[in-house]
Design goal:
Helices cover 38% and strands 19% of the residues. The protein has 465 residues and is of the alpha+beta class. It holds the Pfam family Gln-synt_C.
Length: 465
């Protein structure tokens, strides 16, 4: 049943944004930094940042009325193979993007520019009960709603930290390790990347990321991490981190790639999600005996829920055709089955420390709002139904002695089929978001299947093959 609250979410957001004390806080920060321009930004289903730039003198107008964009922008204004604009077509209405005032930040590379993250709504003039409701295809807004509902039902919040691996190319960055060795962790290679990591860390700290450790992991691969937090904030910060890396690449004349598997002979770019569940300031996954790795009952059931839905979540965690090249390269720590282990880097879920689960499926192109939403649904299913994950995996998941475990989908097409067949996973996104994601990914897979690749030219293109 539709409630008054549902119909007036846009009005409630306007009321928050016109609180004079909140607006004055933003104005003061803008004046202090000399901000002249503002980005009002949101994130598409594929993780791209879109938005509008507005002169800062129009702040009062925009915090009350927002900005408007065509809703097909959330599908990257992409057409399918038949020329149809996905996400509603050319005649679709615009959405209203309302800035969240607490996300205001000044860009450290140009302090004349600030930005907000926005929540998206159906425009107020939309006929009937739809007007002013949260936009169903807003992945960021959906995560906030899913997480809040999870907390109301369970009394828990999900805290997470991401491990974004990225590939950098440019003059002087190539590593030349000895045969059969890896350049991972070598400080000499970190020195090659010193201009990169120093700028990324400095910009990250300026934009609210509590930067912690990082390392050089594989040829051209750098990972820089920040402190874990409430999953909603972690998702925003992953988007900010990507924006920072693109800016640093522009400044230094390098190229940064988020491609999950950039080359045949290199490890893939993952974005492992480290998860913990909290009731207030108590981590309910942590065992009081910190001398040994051990699962609490809550942790066991959380893992059980994750594994029960891992194959269906794979389309979200590996959202591109290229993502599955990373899983195929099984000799280099990428998971292949829905299994778990005690500090076992070959498993989909790893108990990496007391009270912390590492989920290894997500890659560098994951949309963190989608990934955290489906993880919340899977975890809640595990807690509610007390799902047992079975015994821990010892050794790799590919040995004959491994406990039975479902194999991951190994193509995007197969993954989408698993995704749409799981009501727990799709329920976390809702019907409109699920449908748009399915259409986007089905079209991507179809386009790939109809494309002729370099591998095919090499294998079949020569006379006499």
């Amino acid at each position: 049943m539709t409630t008054v609250s549902d119909r007036s979410r846009l009005d409630q957001h306007r009321e928050r944004n016109t609180d004079e004390a909140a607006v004055e806080t933003v104005r003061s920060r803008m004046a202090e930094s000399g901000v002249e321009y503002l980005y009002y930004q949101t994130v598409t289903l594929t993780g791209r940042v879109i938005g509008k730039v507005v002169p800062a003198r129009h702040l009062a107008r925009n915090v009350e009325h927002g900005v408007h964009m065509h809703r097909t922008g959330l599908a990257d204004l992409q057409t399918d193979r038949y020329g149809t604009l996905l996400g509603g077509g050319c005649g679709a209405t615009e959405f209203t993007a309302m800035p969240d005032l607490d996300t205001f930040a000044v860009l450290p590379w140009d302090t004349r520019t600030g930005r907000f993250f926005c929540r998206l709504y159906e425009p107020a003039h939309t006929a009937g009960e739809l007007g002013g409701r949260p936009l169903a295809t807003d992945a960021r807004g959906n995560l906030q709603q899913v997480h809040a509902a999870f907390t109301r039902r369970t009394g828990l919040e999900l805290r997470s930290g991401c491990e974004p691996e990225l590939s950098w190319t440019g003059p002087g960055l190539d590593a030349r390790p000895r045969p059969h060795t890896s350049p991972a962790y070598h400080v000499d290679h970190l020195e090659r990347y010193r201009p990169i990591y120093q700028k990324v860390i400095a910009y990250g700290q300026a934009l609210g990321l509590d930067m912690i450790e990082g390392d050089y992991e594989d040829p051209n691969q750098l990972e820089l991490n920040w402190m874990y937090d409430h999953a909603d904030r972690t998702a925003d910060r992953l988007i900010v981190h990507r924006q920072i890396c693109r800016q640093v690449a522009r400044e230094l004349g390098y190229t940064v790639s988020f491609m999950p598997k950039p080359a045949d002979n290199r490890k893939g770019n993952g974005c492992h999600h480290n998860l913990s569940l909290w009731r207030g300031e108590e981590n309910v996954l942590a065992d009081p005996d910190t001398r040994h790795l051990h699962l609490t009952d809550t942790a066991r059931h959380a893992i059980g829920g994750i594994l029960a839905h891992t194959t269906a979540m794979t389309a979200v965690m590996g959202p591109t055709v290229n993502s599955y090249k990373r899983y195929w390269h099984a000799s280099q720590f990428a998971p292949t089955h829905a299994n778990w282990g005690m500090d076992n880097k070959t498993c989909s879920v790893r108990l990496s420390a007391n009270g912390r689960l590492e989920f290894k499926l997500p890659d560098a192109m994951v949309n963190p709002y989608l990934s955290h939403a489906v993880l919340l649904a899977a975890i809640e299913d595990g807690l509610k139904n007390r799902i047992d994950p079975g015994p821990a995996q010892e050794g790799t998941g590919r040995t004959e002695t491994a406990p039975p475990a479902a194999a991951l989908p190994m193509t995007l097409g197969e993954a989408v089929e698993k995704f749409v067949a799981d009501p727990v996973v799709t329920g976390a996104l809702g019907p409109e978001l699920t449908d748009l994601f399915q259409v986007l990914k089905t079209d991507e897979w179809a386009r790939f299947c109809g494309s002729v690749t370099d591998w095919e030219r090499t294998m079949y293109g020569q006379e006499g093959c």
